[in-house]
Amino acid sequence: MSEPWSDMPALLAEDVSGCWSAVFPEQVPAWLLDSGLSETDIAEALARSLFLRETLERHPEQIQVAVAARPLTEPTTEQWLAERWAQFLEGVDSEPSLHAALRQFRREVQFRIIWRDLMRWADLHETMAAASMLADTCIDGALSWLYEKACEEFGTPYGADPVTGEDVPQKMVVLGMGKLGGRELNVSSDIDLIFGFPSKGETRGGRRALDNQQFFVRLGQRLIQALDQITADGFVFRTDMRLRPYGQSGALALSFAALETYYQDQGRDWERYAMVKARVVAGDQRAGEVLMETLRPFVYRKYIDFSAFESLRAMKAMISREVRRKGLENNIKLGSGGIREIEFVVQAFQLIRGGRDRELQQRELLTILKELEELELLPSPVVKELREAYIFLRNLEHALQGMEDKQTQILPEDALSQARVARIMGFDDWAACQQALAEHREKVAKHFANIIATEDEDEQEESQVGDGCFELWLDEMDEPHALEWLAEQGFENPEDSYKRLKELRESRTVTGLQTQGRKRLNQFMPMLLSALAEVEGSSKTLERVLQLVEAILRRTAYMVLLLENPGALTQLVRLCSESPWIASLLAETPLLLDELLNAENLYNPPTKDELQDELRQQMLRIPFEDLEEQMESLRHFKKAHILRVAASELKGTLPLMKVSDYLTWIAEVVLDHVVEVAFSNLVSRHGYPRRADGSACDTDFAIIGYGKLGGIELGYTSDLDLVFVHQADPQLATDGGKPIDNAVFYTRLGQRIVHILNTQTPSGQLYEVDMRLRPSGNSGLLVSTLKAFEKYQQNDAWTWEHQALARARGVAGCKDTLAGFEKIRHDILCQQRDKTALREEVVKMREKMRDTLGTPESKRAEVFHIKHDNGGIIDIEFLVQYLMLAWSAEYPELTGYSDNIRQMEELGRVGILPVEDTEKLREAFITLRSTIHRRALQNLNSQVEGDAFPEERAYIQSMWQKVMLD
To answer: Regarding predicted confidence, which is higher, 318 or 376?
Structure first.
């Protein structure tokens, strides 16, 4: 009798024969064979999935019960899932037992879904529907149980019924987004949820009344823990709440009115795209339908809305940059011709025409494709190819995920996994599977380009590269001829340029290039030489650009990007001509070349709201627990936007004040996200910090910016002076499975934030962080409570620390905690002070700084340090800080600003200084700071010639004499 794996390819047969005895130590159990399976079926399943193999080996008793409840040969239905969950629920009498029941139920149903899918006993529709029904059942089952317990503990929330307006008990509404909303969930997927409740009100029947939002936030936190927390039994679903209004920084649950207001006033295009698939998956279905109806006008416009093309195009461009950045060409979801492009095509038509053609207001992609054909919006052959490609790609996605019950869309690289996938997909070998995949992706990419993408390159004139550029690079000119040609083209130092080109051409890296790489380099270098001839300082610019060329020699995809986008090459050369700092930035991070593709965006950096929106979109695809990828993406985001600011400053589209604004906004947006990531990571381990009233904190944590960050004066290379505060009770503990004291929680939070910002990764450091301004400096606690911070500032702080407080402001974190800090700052600055004693202390500190950091007396005739020398920036800052501390008691409005410019203006407005003086000081300050900015872009320090800025320095010194010394 032949073995059950005898008909398999050799690699799979060897693998199954090796594991057979481990899974079945004696023989295949009768209960498995009696359920309608043959040994050949079982061997096939073991060959196709490590998850099925490990589950049979580790949990045979549970699988025995599962196949007895319903054979694997029978499809998974909604009614059976509900009945089966009811059986699991019978033994639940506590939250821990609920968690265990959910995880065991998930394991049983997941085993069934993956078995039927990978054996191809279920078609794509059944698999997606079953995975979605499993999620619906788990979410609704957990929510129902937790809601009853929450009502027992806190009372029942009451408010207006969304239909009748009557005062009735309120229940939560859970919206499922993305594939869950469309009933198209993967076999191993996370779930995107949004929590809502009908209306404001209070609980009744509890120990004390609780605001409805507080009730539902707590309920939502418990629901997330029930689904997401990893226990000895695993987890149920990775739960992502970042699609809710305001993202991770927004409230966990919002009333229907708040949700409607947000989407009407602030909803972004990408949120319309996300909301297309939104569906009520748990909770109050009747109230949920009312909510969906109120949100419909946001998603579907009454008119034909062609602007959707542009927003989808921008989203796809962002994803393409991510694919290049992460090397995700083998990602069948995000890569060219992948699942995302089919989704974009279909949802583009939904967003554009859904308001007029109500048939398109459905969620399932294959259903919409059929409607597009019937409405004659897409030709039948196109629909047929997109449908076949979607089914193939989704089946392939399930094959990749079902092998190990792991969320992935990346094609495998090892031969055994490739053999598994080929077998699941019905191919004789991996090569045949790859060929079919390539054909489908090619068709999808073509249709996507025809429907959504634009061919900007076609609109550009082909670059006319002269023969001389080719001859020079290919070494077809002798040296005298080459030097003469370079001089004629405007290279100011032809000998140096010739030498550098020769060294590059003969370098070991270039001589070792493969044929394709050498071919691309030989196409690229003549184009580069032609572009260099168009700028001033061609030789110096060549020297700078060659840093980048050397960095991308083995990553020639970047050369292709520049070859296919002559406009980007022009921008590259122009920016490197104007700034060696930008040239170095691009050489360090060639991925930033993507930013040069769109000159309009390059020279128009986004506002703070747009920055937040862009970062939120980028980070939605990265789980919070993937800290390494979070850190890399944050670094790329920061560099890309700083490049835009620098380019705009060089072009003159951003004045100094706006440059600092933008650099500060970038830091604030990054800090906000870092707080979210760090907080979420700790909460997943330890739960939420508890408040004295028993409720769980949102964060109760804030970051205070000092110095240039606090004063909205960041430069390109500025570090961040930070102080961390929180207002939770340090004596209480968190509410998770591994509780820790709140004080320990917030200390770890601060440490994690510093780690994310400070750590050197392949992309460098996000920001250098200086924590020395915290209470008691380096010897003090990393994170202070607001009370401790206030006590220190009142009783122990030095004058210079109050000076620093004048330039401090809250920059990220909990709004209530930030407001608490602002009150403390206001109160401290408004203290009554002895002006004479204060002046003496400030002058003494200034002299000490000047002696330590300023130019030595012997060199002052040759060198002027713009910041630290007499008549420099620090003189202005100390003068303003003295006046703030001296006069805020009489003029509290002085504390309203933390930046020097507006503080000076306010000093003039209230009459402490003549307005003429404040205007002159302001202009001198801007002049000196502008010089520091410009020099930074030239990789120069803050030291200039000894006779620079004579008028500004004389005026600043005269003001110092008048205010601080006379």
So the answer is: 376
